[in-house]
Amino acid sequence: MEKNIIKPKTLPGFMELLPDEQILFNEMKQKIQNSYEKFGFLPLDTPIIESADILLAKAGGETEKQIYRFMKGESDLALRFDLTVPLAKYVTQYYQNLSFPFKRYQIGKVYRGEKAQRGRFREFYQCDIDIIGDGELSIINDAELPSVIYSTFKELGFDKFTICINNRKLLNGLFESCNLKEKSADILRTIDKIDKIGKEAVIKELKDEQIEDEKIDLIMSFISINTTVEETINELEKLNINNETFLLGLDELKELVKYIKIFGVPETNFKIDLTIARGLDYYTGTVYETFLDEYRFLGSVCSGGRYDNLAEYYTDKKLPGVGISIGLSRLFFQLTYNNIIKANKKSTAEVLVISMVEDFSKPAEIATILRNNGINTQIYAEQVKVKKQFKYANSLQIPYVIVLGEDEIKNGRVSLKNMITGEQEALTIEEVVKKIRNI
Amino acid sequence: MEKNIIKPKTLPGFMELLPDEQILFNEMKQKIQNSYEKFGFLPLDTPIIESADILLAKAGGETEKQIYRFMKGESDLALRFDLTVPLAKYVTQYYQNLSFPFKRYQIGKVYRGEKAQRGRFREFYQCDIDIIGDGELSIINDAELPSVIYSTFKELGFDKFTICINNRKLLNGLFESCNLKEKSADILRTIDKIDKIGKEAVIKELKDEQIEDEKIDLIMSFISINTTVEETINELEKLNINNETFLLGLDELKELVKYIKIFGVPETNFKIDLTIARGLDYYTGTVYETFLDEYRFLGSVCSGGRYDNLAEYYTDKKLPGVGISIGLSRLFFQLTYNNIIKANKKSTAEVLVISMVEDFSKPAEIATILRNNGINTQIYAEQVKVKKQFKYANSLQIPYVIVLGEDEIKNGRVSLKNMITGEQEALTIEEVVKKIRNI
Q1: Is the Cβ pair B151, A365 closer than 8 Å?
Q2: Does the distance separating the beta carbons of A92 and B8 come in below 8 Å?
Q3: Whether residue A202 is found in the same domain as residue A252
Q4: How far is B210 from chain A, CA to nearest CA, in Å?
Q5: In a shared domain, residues B100 and B190
Q6: Which end of chain A is more exposed for a tag (fewer CB within 10 A), N or C?
Q7: A97 touches chain B (CB under 8 A)
C-alpha cells in the first residue's frame, strides 16, 4: 500500500483546545452542571442528528441556511442547531413519562454553519435549562432562574455581573396602546439594537418605519427608564398606560422582582432593563440577559425568557416554559482571548512517580498505593535520564514528584519533591499519602 | 401562518434516555472519567465534524460505507466514526505543544451508519484512553492499562470480570515460523471468531484456506493453551518456536504479566487468552479484551491494544501507542436491557420544597438556604393541592419533602418528611441542613 501523507488540520470555526485549556473548559462545564443540579434540574442528552423535518418544523430564514443537512441513504437528516427544538420534540414524545413542571438541563454541542469569524463557532456548546409546565406555569419559576444564573456565575468565579430583566408584555402592551401592534416585531428588533447603534439611530429607524413622533416619544421615554428596580416600577406605573397586556406585564414584573430577591440574588446583581426585547418572536413574558459588568463588550453571556408554547409544531398541548442558555464555547473563547481567565492546570495528576532504577516494580507499587488512596497519580515509565523525567513533570506542572532510586528502595522510603517550592523530603508512603491528602 | 403538526420521533439507532436512565448513564460516564483521571490522563474534546479527507485517510471498506459524509458549501465533511483517527490528527497537529508520553482520554459521541438493530447504535459514546510515545514507548504502559480497566470496572460496581490479554507478536511469530505470514491476516480473522463459531468451525475454515494439517495442529495447540498465567507462559516456552518475533512477543508477555500484578490487578481478574487477536491489522503487540464473567454473552466490554504507528497517514514521525476503549452506549444498553443494572434515581434533588400558602416567600427563602448549604433543592411553585404536590415528589422519588403551611411559618419551623420511611418532623432550618448533610 502506498503511503499518502495528509497534512492534518481542524476545520475553521471548530474549537479544539490544548489539554490545559480543555481542563479549564471542563471545569467550567462541570461547575455549570453542578449549579443546574443544585436547583433540581434533570439531565438530558438527546441525539445530535435528528430527522430534518422534525428539526426544521419551525425554522426558516437564517436558521435554515445555516443548518447542516444531508441525506444518508433515504433519510433526510440534520444536526441540531439548538437544544430547544430537541427539547420540544422530547417533551412531546415522552409526555406520558414525564412529571410536570418538567425541569431539565442539557449541556451539549450544537451546529450552525455560520460564516467563520473570530469567536463565532460552527460547533459550540450550549448549556440550557428549561422549566416546562403542563398547561400552566407559575411566575415563581421565572423568578428562580435569575437565582440559577447568579449561583452559576458566582461558581464560575465572577462577582460583578448584572442580570437584566424585562417583560415582553410591557413592550407589547405599549405597542397595542399606540396601535402599533402590527409593527411590534420590527420595532422590537430595532429597540434590541440600542446597545449597539445608540438612541439616535434607533429613533431614526423608527421614523423610517413611519411611526408618528408622539408615539416614538412614548416608546423612547419607556425604554429610557433606567434607574433602580423600585423606581423603574414607579415610573412604569406613572406612564399610566391603560392596556391589559401592559398591566399584566407590570404585575408579572412586580412578582418577579419580589421573588428574585427572596431567591437570594443581591440587588447589585440584577436590574430592570426595558430595552431588552430578545428579538425572537418566541418570547412572550419575562426575558433575561446577563452582562459581565467589567466586560460588557462581550455581550450577553446568559440569555433566555418565558414562552407560551414550547412545542406547538409537535402537539396541540399547551406547554409554557421558561429557560436560559449559556453559550459556553463562545464564552470560554472570549474569556481566554481577553485574558479574563487563564488555563492554570496542565495535568490531572497530583503526583508523578519516576524511577532511577531499571526495574519498575517499586514505582508501579507506589503509584498503585497512591491511586488506591484516591490520589491522582501518573507514572513516567520510559528509560531516560532523571533530568528528562523532571522536565516532563515541569512541562505538565505536576505539583509533586516521587523519585525512587536504589537508596530509597533499600530504606523503604520515597523522595517526595514539591515542584513549586523545590522542597524535598524522604518519607514513608503512608506519610506521603497523609501529606498530599491534607493539601 | 398555518400550523402543521409533525409527529415527533427519534431516529432509529439513536439512543435517547428518560431522565432516570440519563442520571444512571451520566453517573457511569462520570465514574469512567474519574477513573481515567486517577491515572493522570488528560482530557480532549475534538470536533465531531472533520474534513472527510482527514478522517478517511486510512479508512476503507466497511468504515467508508458506514460513515456520515456530506457536503456543506464547498466542504467535503464527515462525522468522526471513532476517537482514534481524531487523536492521530490532534497529536500530529499539536505535536510541538504536547509532552510525551502523551496520555489523553476522550469521552464523546461517534457515528456509524450501521444497520439499526437492538443494541447497535448509529450514535454512541466511546470512552477512550491512549498513551502515545514519541519514537518509543515502554511496555510498562501496556501493563498499566489493565490496572485502569480494573479500577474502572470496580468503580462501576463489578467484581467478577476478566481482562484477557495476548500479544500479536506471538501469533505473528507463529505464522512466520510456519511460513504462513502472507495469510496471517486471514488466519487471525478466523481465529478471532472461535468464541462465536467454535473450534471445529475454525479448523474447517483454516482447511478451506489451504493450510496444511500439521500447521493447523500447531496453530490449534497454540490457541488451545488455556490455563493459569504462569502455566501458559511455560506451555508457550515448551512449544519451542524459534522465531524472533515469537520470542519477542513472549518476552513482552512476561514483562506485561509481571507488572500487571504489581499494578494491583488480582490474578482472578486477568488471564492470558491466546485466541484473542482483535481482527484489526492495526494492533502490533499487546491486545486486551474484557468480559463480565457472569455475562460473557455481552462480548468484550473494554478492548484495545498496542500499535506501532498512531499517525502514519499524517506524519513520518513514529508515534507508538497503547490504548483501550469502552463502548459506553452499547454497554449501558446491554446492562439495562438484561436487568444487570437498573435506574434507581429519578431526580437530582435531595429535597422538594412545597407550600400550603399562596405566598411563596417562605418556601423560596428556605430553598435558597438549603442550596447555599450545598443541598440540591427543587421547589414546586404551582398553586395546586398539597396532595398533587406530594404526588410530584413521589413520581420523582425525591427523598425529602419540606412542607410549609401557616403554622410552620408562624413557628419558625418547617415540616420535614422522609418520603421513604414516611417519618415527619418539625425542625428549624438549621436542623434540616444538619440532618440532610449528615446522610
Answers
A1: no
A2: yes
A3: yes
A4: 25
A5: yes
A6: N
A7: yes
Compute the count of residue pairs across chains A and B with CB atoms less than 8 Å apart: 280
Please indicate, yes or no, whether residues B401 and B269 belong to a single structural domain of this protein. Answer: no
B76-116 pLDDT, tens digit each = 999 999 999 999 999 999 999 999 999 999 999 999 998 87
Provide the edge-to-edge strand list for the sheet that holds A424-427: A377-379, A351-355, A400-404, A414-418, A424-427
Flag whether residue A381 sits within 8 Å of chain B, measured between CB atoms: yes
Inter-chain touch A313–B140, beta carbons under 8 Å:
no
Q: Which CATH number belongs to the domain containing residue A120 in this structure? A: 3.30.930.10
Work out the burial of residue B273: count CB atoms within 10 Å of its CB; fewer than 13 is exposed, 13-18 middle, 19 or more buried. Answer: buried
Q: Are the beta carbons of A270 and A146 closer than 8 angstroms?
A: yes
Q: Report CB contact under 8 Å: B51, A364.
A: no
Q: Do A40 and B347 touch (CB under 8 A)?
A: yes
Q: Is the predicted pLDDT of residue A1 greater than 60, yes or no?
A: no
Q: How many domains does chain B have?
A: 2
| Percent share of chain A, pLDDT over 70 | 98
Q: What is the pTM of this model?
A: 0.96
Chain B closest-CA separation from residue A51 CA (Å): 7
Q: Which helix (H) or strand (E) holds B395?
A: helix B386-395
Do A213 and A253 form a contact (C-beta atoms < 8 A)? no
Question: Could you tell me the residue range of the domain that residue B310 belongs to?
Answer: 19-46+83-337
pLDDT digits (tens, 9 = 90+) for A371-400: 999 999 999 999 999 999 999 999 999 999
A145 contacts on B by Cβ (under 8 Å): none
DSSP state of A157: T
- Map residue A231 onto helix, strand or coil: helix
A8 contact residues in B (CB cutoff 8 A):
54, 88-90, 92-93, 311, 314-315
Per-residue pLDDT band for B1 (boundaries 50, 70, 90) equals: very low
Mutation site for B-interface testing, chosen from A28, A378, A392, A396 by largest number of B Cβ within 10 Å: A378
Nearest to A142 by CA among B381, B353, B378: B381
**Which residue in B329, B337, B338, B277 sits closest to B114, CA to CA?**
B329
**Continuous H helices in A39-182:** 52-55, 62-66, 84-93, 139-155, 168-177
